C-alpha cells in the first residue's frame, strides 16, 4: 500500500489542527483523518463514527504499527510542509502522485 496523495485542510482550533484526505494506490480515498496536537506533540486520529452510547468507533484504521507509522509520517510531513509554505505549492511527492480526488 502506498499513499499516493495527501490533502491537508487546516483549521483554527485549539487541539485540532487539520482535516486530511489521503488516497491509497491512486484508487482508494480515506477522508476525515485529523491532525491533533496532544500532550506529546502532533498525531493522526483516524476517521470515527459516534455511536448511540456516545463513544466513538474508528471507521477505517491501520491493522499494524508499521502501517500506522508510515501513514502518520507521510501525513505529518505534508502538514508541516504546508505550515512552512502556506500550502501554495504542491510538494514533489504530491506533484508526482497527481490529483485523484
- The geometry reads as globular
- Please give the order of strands in the largest beta sheet: 1-2-3-4
In the predicted model, the low-confidence regions spanning at least 5 consecutive residues are 88-101
What order do the SSEs take from the amino end to the carboxyl end, as H and E?
EEEEEEHH
Q: How would a textbook summarize the main sheet? A: 4 strands, antiparallel
Helix content: 25-40%
Q: Let me know the average pLDDT.
A: 86
Distance between the termini: 18 Å
Structural class of the helix and strand makeup? alpha+beta
Global Rg:
14 Å
**Record field, number of beta strands:** 6
In terms of DSSP E residues, the strand content is 35-45%
The number of helical runs is 2
Describe, in plain words, how this protein is organized in 3D:
This protein is α+β, with helices and mostly antiparallel strands. 27% of the residues lie in helices and 39% in strands. The protein has 2 helices and 6 strands, in the order E-E-E-E-E-E-H-H. Strands 1-2-3-4 form a 4-stranded antiparallel β-sheet. The longest helix is centred in the last third of the chain and has 21 residues, at 65-85. It is globular, with a radius of gyration of 14 Å. Residues 88-101 have low confidence and may be disordered.
Amino acid at each position: 500500500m502506498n499513499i499516493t496523495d495527501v490533502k491537508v485542510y487546516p483549521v483554527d482550533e485549539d487541539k485540532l489542527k487539520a482535516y486530511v484526505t489521503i488516497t491509497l494506490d491512486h484508487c482508494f480515498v480515506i477522508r476525515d483523518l485529523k491532525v491533533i496536537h496532544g500532550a506529546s506533540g502532533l498525531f493522526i486520529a483516524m476517521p470515527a463514527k459516534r455511536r448511540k452510547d456516545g463513544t466513538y468507533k474508528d471507521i477505517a484504521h491501520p491493522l499494524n504499527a508499521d502501517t500506522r507509522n508510515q501513514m502518520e509520517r507521510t501525513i505529518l510531513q505534508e502538514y508541516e510542509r504546508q505550515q512552512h509554505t502556506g500550502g501554495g505549492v504542491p510538494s514533489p511527492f504530491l506533484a508526482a502522485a497527481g490529483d485523484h480526488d
